[in-house]
Amino acid sequence: MATEDHSNTPDNYNNDQNDSSENYNQTEIYPLLPLRDVVVFPYMVVPLFVGRKKSIRAIEEAMLKNRKIVLCSQKQAKTDDPELEDLYETGTIAEILQLLKLPDGILKILVEGTTRVKINQFIQTDEFFEVEAERVGSEDKKTIELQALMRNVISLFEQYVKLNKKIPLEVIMVANNVEEPGRLADIITAHLNLKVDEKQEVLEAFVPRARLEKIAGILNRELEIMMVEKKIRGQVRKQMEQIQKEYYLREQMKAIQKELGEGDERTEELEELKMAIHKAGMPEEAREKAEKELSKLTKMPPGSAEATVSRNYIDWLVALPWKKRTKDRIDLEKCQNILDEDHFGLTRVKERILEYLAVCRLKKSIKGPILCLIGPPGVGKTSLGKSIARSLNRKFARISLGGMRDEAEIRGHRRTYIGAMPGRIIQALRDTGSKNPVILLDEIDKLGMDYRGDPSSALLEALDPEQNYTFSDHYIATPFDLSKVLFLTTANVPHTIPGPLRDRLEIVYLPGYTQEEKVEISKRYLVPKQKEANGIDKHNVEIKDSAIVEVIRKYTRESGVRNLERELASICRKIARDIVVGKKDKKAKGKKVSIKVTGTAVEKYLGIPKFHVDRRDEKDEIGLVNGLAWTEVGGTILPIEVVFMPGRGKIILTGSLGEVMKESAHTGMSYLRSHADQIKMRPIDYDHLDLHIHFPEGAVPKDGPSAGIAIATAIYSALNEVAVNNTFAMTGEITLRGKVLPVGGIKEKLLAAHRQGITDIIISADNEKELEEIPANIRKNLKIHKVKTADEVLKLALVGKPKRAPLKFTRRAMGTEAKKQNQKAAEE
Fold this sequence. Notes:
The chain contains 26 helices and 29 strands. Strands 3-5-6-7-8 form a five-stranded mixed β-barrel. Strands 10-11-14-9-15 form a five-stranded parallel beta sheet, with helices on both faces.
């Protein structure tokens, strides 16, 4: 492949003043030499390497004639065999000064440009290019403006040469001695580092003035570029000098530390921290803070307090799982098996959890509502969180919020404080080593608040899916993405959860266990667990179902199974003691012992029963009604007692009652008095009668409207001296017009009634939908009466006919009663 090469700068210049002797517009025939990547100007001496056959033949032809040849640049340097359209129409006539044939057949020639030419036509193109070329050019008169333009160009060129170290300073002297404007432009252009098309534009500028103006523009542009390059080089050089300086100083510090005997360990420690920061996968903001803190740490004395603070901060940043996560496994069948394996019953709760996970699987994301598991103690809220984490193949962390009053427990302390630490959420992420764990916020209903802040307000950001992707901890001081964390919360009651926080939660209620469920849970989980915990699992110890039922009914009073487990543990400990001391069978000492615990033997292990199975009176009584109440540990029977006596029309309420329950008593009394004829009340002189309403277990606080119909029934029974059926229990709110309104906790209340042997239950008709939650075997043993008005309650619960005789207290009766009371007081 034929090539031509050249040097980028001219070797010499012809200083002869021969422009004036040129005959412009003269046409002659010359051989043509195509050039790649070079433009030859008049007065320019340049060496060329010629290798293409046509080009060598053209040089030979020129040497045979007058050593003149036309040099013309190619439009595309990559073209090996150029055609006519591949060449520019303007070139330069050059004289071949020297010719040297190299061993590989390539010719090296030294040429000198003389005159611009314009190619009119090609004469021959077969063996070599031969063209008819016309000499072109013009001369401008030396006006003041032209001289000023020349001086400006020379000044710009001097600046260019000073910035470009590749051009010798002698070129400036040559340029200053040139008087012709066209020649000056050609000399300067030859030394500029321009592209071929730009040099060709200058070559095609036949008028010297236009040529100088074009050169002036090019020089101004190149000077701007070179100034920027110089600035950049200065900045790079300064940075390199700073890096070299720091390197030198660090090496000196290493040498000094080595002499002091403390260098190696600290250097290794800092390098480890640097590598840990690099591998932690932090976001840009966190990485910059870590590197900045590490830079400060390197300049601090190792034993200073500030160094300890910085080191702890870096350790926390490095330890956080910025990119580490576990792969989710949302397998509904496996999740169902795990939930059934870990928990018995709780069918509705399990269904809600599986629905939640099914949505997560379809959305390919765990984002969604925060589940809040609300139920009595001991029903398995915390263990449900563990089961969800296990089914998702996620790490699990539990944060107890009970009694928490300091906002810093959630958001962390600022690093300015001594002993500052991140908040509990960031600590949980560090402990799990995963950015997508399941975090259980336990006892969220027991959050406190004081002068140190409100933790529930700090939780708003963490539990809001629209905000928690930039959760900010005061200690870390950089956003952390919590959007991949699955938060679960637990509580015993919903009303103590702050409103804004409760609004972000989806509440799932966990009801209490029935007696049958507790027996099954004991057999499957609690008894095997306690046998193993107390070392009697290797012996033939059997706790019968009757024994478990006896423990449930006489030694526990709860919705969950926590106390039940304690009592079973107590039985197992006493059995373990009997086995060790050989109390049961001395001959079997050291061998496996067989022990069966039946219902009759429970009292021997646990002592006197703590609770009575049935607190109801065996006979129907006047003024005594079985109410139903809901507590944090489940439902319970709430006896209500009413008596009347001579007095001044007062209603006395005792039993640690809340305001709502007191209002219910007054509402019930007002209903009875306002509807006396409708419900067949006997005539009563209320002005001389005091009514005392008492709720036993007076030390236990009681409140709520659900005892309304029970209070009204008890008052009616007392005033009309008619007994109430003791197999009935009731719950419902009463209005002044006698409407029975629905109340909450129906399932827990009915389970408590069933435990106490109640057979008939009175509830509001609007509570009917909640009966679906009651197990079928419980519903079968209860007769549930759904009422809408209070008179229906009276018709169902009362036994016998009310008295019709007027109830009055005369002044004599009142005086006799007062005298009796004074006498009794004096005797005491």
